[in-house]
Amino acid sequence: MALNILEADITELQVDAIVNAANSSLLGGGGVDGCIHRKAGPELLAECRTLKGCPCGEAKVTQGYRLPARYVIHTVGPVYHGGTHGERALLESCYRNSLECALKLNLKSVAFPLISAGVYGYPREEALNVAVTVIREFLKSHDLAVKIVLYDKESVAAGRKLYPELWA
């Protein structure tokens, strides 16, 4: 289907699933993770407790509860340490594994935040390049509408600069 980039609040989107840039405990945190947990309600935290965490680069699925999205795909991105500790491969894995979860659930639409580009320190332009590259490759062989949702000023500026053709 299509890949688009937009500026929005991911917790407000009408999509089948949103991706949560979670920490490895899956029990909530700051940034997009905290916003998703607050908006989804306490049921999300209760279900996340049953998952017993998630390793970096992998993904797990829960219901969306009070979110407009039916599902939340939780993935744990790498903390950036200069790019010499396998961060890119782990970030690529986050996107691929999240897309595979969407495929297994037979979803038609999914929205991603910019994984690892907040408190985990991944440079925004590099993180966006990884996201677009992995998603474009996946969409060559799968029918899915994918949105990359940018929220902060720096990410929005990077998105408009690097990928004006994808801007929704």
Protein model, in words:
Helices cover 38% and strands 19% of the residues. It is globular. The longest helix has 18 residues, at 87-104. Helix 3 crosses helix 4 and helix 4 packs across helix 5 (153-162). A 6-stranded mixed sheet has the order 1-6-5-2-4-3, sandwiched between helices. The model has no long low-confidence stretch (mean pLDDT 96). The protein has helices spanning 31-40, 42-51, 87-104, 124-139, 153-162; strands spanning 3-7, 17-22, 59-63, 71-76, 109-112, 145-150. It contains 5 helices and 6 strands. The protein is an alpha/beta fold and 168 residues long. The two termini are 14 Å apart.
Sketch the major β-sheet: 6 strands, mixed
Radius of gyration: 14 Å
How many strand units?
Answer: 6
Ends distance: 14 Å
Structural class: alpha/beta
Give the ordered list of helices and strands. Answer: EEHHEEHEHEH
Shape: globular
Keywords:
168 residues; alpha/beta; 6-stranded mixed sheet; 5 helices; 6 strands; 38% helix
Write the layout of secondary structure elements.
Layout: E1 3-7, E2 17-22, H1 31-40, H2 42-51, E3 59-63, E4 71-76, H3 87-104, E5 109-112, H4 124-139, E6 145-150, H5 153-162
Helix pairs in contact: 3-4, 4-5
Q: How is this structure best summarized?
A:
By secondary structure, the protein is of the alpha/beta class. The chain has helices spanning 31-40, 42-51, 87-104, 124-139, 153-162, and strands spanning 3-7, 17-22, 59-63, 71-76, 109-112, 145-150. The longest helix is centred in the middle third of the chain and has 18 residues, at 87-104.
